[in-house]
Amino acid sequence: MLIYKVARSIRIIFGFAWLNGVIAAKRNPLWVISYLITPFSLLVLFFVWGGESLARNAVIGGLVSMAAMNGIGLMGDVAYYKNFVKLQDMMVASPMTALHYMLGLALSGFLFSMPGLLLMLLFAGKLIGLSIMSLLVIIIVYIILLLSTAGIGFTVATFVREERYVWPLSNILSFGLMILPPVYYPYTLLPSSLVGPAVILPTSNAAMILQYITGLMPKLPYNLAALLAILGAETVVFLWISLKKSQWREK
């Protein structure tokens, strides 16, 4: 019975992720390209300005920002499905639960971002050189960060009554999570008083981890296990809050 429930949950999550990720990307590939513009523009800018040295940090920043952009971008899907097409109300009548719904959306963000992720990993392999272990850590941190930022996006979307308000909020969140904190630059450039707050932000936390495991950063402000624990705990908290705020009428 337990195996059946688990298998059904996986089928529901992957089915919804395929619908909102792969099929949506096939119907409108421009959305996939739009998520690549910012990280690749900054990569080109850093390469022209500072050569391979700055471009290495830009690659890590691009990986982090792609995960965050796709996670936060799900805020638009949540608001659209809930307020405009009323898809959430229809899903309530199905075997889908709120957790299935959110994990399916988050997985769709991962599927949506795979072309950019693979391309950025190719640049990372060329500019930095990736071992099997560092590649594995990058993918794990990428998925955790995507879930964390998706939780933020889900939570914010519950307060949005009209879809048009999603886009400015998405841009503000993107600027606050990806440009201001040390994502495209090392945390050592920050004043010591701002390092602690930077660790709390999931994007800069993830960037520190990736810069460290790829050899771009010789040391971390805290040990690696602590940073991973903070990032994981934030992901759980953000998803839990979004579940509580989802107003999903469980059967």
Could you please describe the fold and organization of this structure?
The longest helix has 56 residues. With 251 residues, this protein is mainly alpha-helical. The chain has one domain. The mean pLDDT is 83. The two termini are 19 Å apart. The chain is built from nine helices and no strands.
Work out the radius of gyration.
18 Å
Portion of residues in beta strands equals under 5%
Overall tally of domains: 1
Shape: globular
Q: Helicity level, as a percent range?
A: over 70%
Summarize the structure.
With 251 residues, the protein is mainly α. The chain has helices at 2-27, 29-84, 87-92, 98-127, 132-157, 166-179, 192-200, 202-213, 224-245. Helix content is 80%, strand content 0%.
Which keywords apply here?
single chain; mainly alpha; 9 helices; globular
Layout: helices, strands, pairs:
Elements: H1 2-27, H2 29-84, H3 87-92, H4 98-127, H5 132-157, H6 166-179, H7 192-200, H8 202-213, H9 224-245
Helix pairs in contact: 1-2, 1-4, 2-4, 2-5, 2-6, 2-8, 4-5, 5-8, 5-9, 8-9
